[in-house]
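Exercise (ungraded).
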Amino acid sequence: MSLPPPDSTFSRRTLVVLMEDKPGVLSHVSNLFRRRNYNIESLTVGHSETQDISRMTVVVHANDAMLEQVAKQLYKLINVTKVSEVNTDDAVMRELALIKVHAPSAQRAEIKQVVDIFRAQIIDVALDSMVIEITGDESKVESLISILKPFGIKELTRTGRVAMIRGSLTANGTRFGS
Amino acid sequence: MRLNGAQILWECLVREGVDTVFGITGGAVLPIYHELPNYPIRHITMRHEQACAHAADGYARATGKVGVCLATSGPGATNLVTGIATAMMDSSPMVAITGQVATNALGTDAFQEVDITGITMPITKHNYLITDVADLALAVREAFHIASTGHPGPVLIDIAKDAQTAEIEFEYPDYVSLPGYKPHTRGNPRQIKQAADMINTAQRPLIIAGRGVLVAGAQQELCELATKAHIPVSTTLLGKSAIPETHPLCLGMGGMHGEAFANYALQQCDLIFAVGMRFDDRYTSAAGTFAPNAKIVHVDIDPAEIAKRIRVDLPIVGDAKNVLRQLLPLVEERDLADWLGQIDSWRAETRDRDALWQETDEVLPQYVVFNIWEATRGEALMVSDVGQNQMWEAQYYRHVRPGGLISSGGLGTMGFALPAAIGAAAGRPDCQVWVVVGDGGFQMTLQELATVMQERLPIKIAILNNGFLGMVRQWQEMFFQKNYSGSPLLGPDFAKLAEAYGIAAATIESKEGVAAAVKAAYDSDGPMVIDFRIEREHNVFPIVPVGHPIDQMIRRPKQTQP
Ligand SMILES: Cc1ncc(C[n+]2csc(CCOP(=O)(O)OP(=O)(O)O)c2C)c(N)n1
Ligand SMILES: [Mg+2]
């Protein structure tokens, strides 16, 4: 059969990519996503447990066929050593956000209450603003933001998703497609 | 041994077996050029850096070795870009070396500074920026390894000027360690067994062979497979000569300008065994309409090529030669008389429409190519450009010599042929090298006639001169109401031009002159330019309009029989 597969549904998929920590490798990866027209939602990179190996978490909006292409194209990059998909079911996924919210003294108590409910933290307080730190999955971060919006968000920064498989299996031990 | 970066570069190139480098000097590579005379490497001075890259590419395709080009920073480096992209698209092993401004000037928009590693990121297999001489030898070693293995391709090394002059104790690294780079070479035995079962039970099987067969040197194995199981073989443009084109089972090129009978066979077959090809859109047309009745087995060394455009029933990742060798003993001898008979009747119908039968005094391009084929007995190293000339070469030159066609398939780069032929001729002095080129493409790189002369390369250049950007004119005729916007060309007298470079030349304006001119070029020891003034508005047939299934071709109108 030569017909392309009926498009399986698109969803947010998470790939963990391990790569040698060489100059230019990050731009190789981000360039690849742009060039191949892949739709990335977030990309986070930092050190891994192994020296000289960086670990990247990418969230892509893709269906099965596309995700397979993304993984194969990533493998073609010389410095990429491992690509694995992690599923929401068997992994923990977190992101961190810092939110600077308008907080004149009249509103502080109310904001504090919201922060407590979300088990977030107030990490800086100024005359009419405070900085809140929250860690959680995207939906938790999302809902805190939407609740804080009416107070007036002055500044916002989010890290994007990082992920780790639960249990003793590691991303290093799984390979995309197997 | 204490050496500077420039010396280390040459030491490494010599150790990698490099005998020829195509380059143009400049400020940022002066230290490298200063050391060049001390090493046993032929340097061919080209007239434009684009030509340096095409020549290295042509050299690589003709010899199977890595081609090397060298350019200065800034404009020298950017001029390489088209040639690097051309090599990338056609999986040609190349190492491009550029000079870069000194490390302390990097990022300051210094004179002739350009971020060539950034620019070439998407068009190289890998690239390096060397700012520390200590990293140079390993980078060169890795570059040659990466360029020549797996799915071959170009690698660029950008060397800062201070790294060329800094000294260090030279040690040639004896191995490369690239944990993220491990090309598969042997096919999975279970999948190979499955492929054999599919081949053994198919009623209307077809092989599609691409350039991967040539890269792997698997012509022999492919031919054995076809002959043993009686499977007809169609090739891509770059797969031509994967099986001798005079072989009874060879259907020639399929696709947009493919043989009509090959395209019918593709649409009717029940099994496609595709090896070393990538289902390019010029071959398949709209992906959803391709080979509707066929199961597809796809053999490729690059997993990313599998299921990229076309759904595949059975993928086999591996080197074409290994996979075919693994497969051969499992394939049964078959007699597929019905299927082959059907193909033969399509073939006969095609023959009736052949342009060679046309009665005319005009110079027909098909007739020119046919004459070159006859004179060279299919054994020449042909280098074609892009456009109608490329398709006529592909349709009328039946390649017998493995790897006998060099052409820019993937990128379709006009101006490729002459410089690529220079590389091919430099690498293969034992072959007669011919260029088939249009008047448009020839004018994009004709400055390289000077290189031909300076290096005494006996290249024969056949210009199929129609006074048009012909392929574009044909599309305008067929799909844009004959609105010849931007396609007519007023060219110079190419024969006089060639003579100005000191190259023998002829102008041929009628059919009678063709054979003699071809023979004169064939017999001469030197280069020659022949300006064939072909019928101006001649078209390439068949042609599959974009988006149509490949068996819905516009055919050449039927001629009255001779
Ligand atoms: C560098 C480049 N520019 C433009 C094109 C688009 N193009 C494809 S074929 C063609 C016409 C080629 O004309 P000519 O070289 O005279 O060959 P002909 O088709 O007439 O044989 C053009 C302009 C191209 N392929 N490459
Ligand atoms: Mg022309």
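Further reading is listed at the end of the chapter. For now, observe: Residues 92-162 of chain A form a domain with the Alpha-Beta Plaits fold (CATH 3.30.70.1150). The pocket of magnesium ion (ligand 2) is lined by residues B 438-440, 466, 468-470 (CB under 6 Å).
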